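Task: sequence design from structure.
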């Protein structure tokens, strides 16, 4: 059993044609905004959870996926969930969704 479990969800930004992502603490429902995007550089990285949430609970953790630290990555493509288990802070699990941001520019 892990010390903290989070689930990432995509949300529509009210009144706008864009979306954002939030990490939700499965234990108490606390929402932590995640950065817009989701490019490859951000996969398995959750600094917002550390800075905005775990630090306030005096939990020291590194949520930056690294097999060298013993972190684990389990993709479940059929369920559209990527589970990262971090071997830090007592064990932290983040169930993420595949995220990508695309831009389109038209020139006439």
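Answer:
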């Amino acid at each position: 059993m892990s010390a903290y479990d989070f689930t990432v969800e995509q949300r529509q930004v009210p009144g706008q044609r864009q979306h954002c992502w939030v990490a939700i603490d499965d234990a108490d429902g606390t929402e932590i905004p995640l950065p817009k995007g989701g490019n490859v550089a951000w996969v398995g990285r959750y600094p917002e959870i550390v800075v905005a949430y775990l630090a306030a609970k005096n939990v020291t953790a590194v949520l930056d996926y690294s097999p060298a630290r013993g972190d684990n990555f389990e993709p479940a493509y059929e369920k559209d969930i990527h589970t990262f288990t971090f071997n830090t802070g007592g064990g932290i699990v983040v169930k993420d969704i595949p995220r990508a941001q695309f831009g389109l520019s038209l020139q006439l």
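The first strand starts at residue 4 and ends at 12.
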